[in-house]
Amino acid sequence: MSAPRPLATGIVLALALGLIAAVPAPARAQEEPAPDAAADAGGETADAAADGAAGEGEAAEPAPPPGPPSVVTLTNGDRLSGEIKTMTKGKLVLATSYAGDVTLDWTQVASVESSQTLPWVLADGTEIVSAAKTDEQGHVALGSADMEDGTRVAIAKVSAIAPPAPVDPPDIKIKGAASLGGVIEDGNTNSKSANAKANLQTRTKLTRLSLSGNWNYVETEGLLTSRSLGGEIKFDYFPWEKDFFLFVQASLLRDDFQDLELRTVLSGGVGWQIIEEDWLEAFVEGGLAYVDENFDDGVDETSLSVRVAWGLDWVIVKDRLTFRHRGEILPSLEDADDFIANLDQELRLTIFEGFFASAGVLFRYDNSPAAGQGRRDTRYTINIGYQFATEK
Question: Which pTM was predicted?
Answer without folding.
Answer: 0.60
